[in-house]
Amino acid sequence: MICFTYPGQGSQEAKMGLDWVDHPSWELVAEASQVAGRDITHLLLHADDDELRQTRNSQLATFMVSMIALDAVARVGIETTCHAGHSLGEYSALVAAGVIDFADGVRLVTERGEAMQVAAEEQDGTMAAIVGLDDNLVEQACTQAAGEVWVANYNAPGQVVIAGSPAMVGTASTIAKDLGAKRVIPLPVGGAFHTPYMASARERLQKVIGQTEFRAPDHPVYANVDASAHTNYENWADLLSMQLTSPVRWRQSLHNMCDAGCTTFVELGPGAVLTGTVKRTAKGAKPLKVNSPADIDAVLEALASPTVVAAGPLEGEALFATERLVVSPAAGIFQPTTEPLTGAAVSAGHLLGQVGASEVRTPWNGIVMGFLAVEGERVAASQPIAWLRTH
User: Fold this and answer.
1) Among 140, 144, 158, 250, which is 20 to 30 Å from 107 by CA?
2) Taking the model in full, what pTM does it have?
3) Residue 159's closest CA among 142, 127, 180, 134?
């Protein structure tokens, strides 16, 4: 079984959108910029590391790269059986699963980034990663510090993040070393995220959450707050609100996904932080990532590798490495070209038909194996239209 995962704040890097500019999925950037009232193109192509470290910028930029990567893998037919996102990535997971629509996702992430930035400016806080110490001993270090410091992220075995006031994080870090921690790594962040220090951000975000329509997911989404799979929409408003002031239970989520049968984890978005946690936590699982168009073929080839094929078909996998889906560029009525194409060889750019006023052209060379939409059918944007076997 395949699970799609989505990274959170801290995975961003300058110019992380450059590789995507010429990809069809880049069209999402203009749509999101209009919804957010912000120049997201600037964030993805021109903002430097200092600008991207600001919470209001890093969250929106990271979310957008995940959405672009998600759209790109959908275009080639890779499917999943569940979703999970780390902190901010939970919003990406909810959009991917259809719990919230794309525009609402942009609005929520924009408001979340602003709210957390303001909360961090109002109350001085910091975070540190404790490496090489069991969870219970990290919790003990926070308790012994006897001040405002808490566990913020359970990321992987021997990798727990604490957060709170700078003084108390320093005290708990010293205690953790005395208890046997191999290293303490101060994190370059501007706030104590996933702690009570985010209470004002939670209150602000609740207003936007209350205006958002939630729907049933197409596949289960694992929540940060309880590490459980949620197959309905009723609890998500509360879960998103609680997430800001509760620890991220990522390691526990990975264990639960593995217990449910997940064997392959595909990280969609910048960086490879979650890929690293899979390697540390889910022994025997296959970690993959898509943070540029070049990664897509590598993922398809990995899914079609002899070792994977020998293990049996992966639930959630739609196509193998030589097959591609052509999807609709817009919503509307599909009209195929009058040219007979099934079984025909076509080159990249060949016209397959139209959806409303928009042309449907293949991005690849290959043989048209069949159409998945019929003449006169109303299709949605990104809905599969035809499938090709590439040369």
Assistant:
1) 250
2) 0.81
3) 134
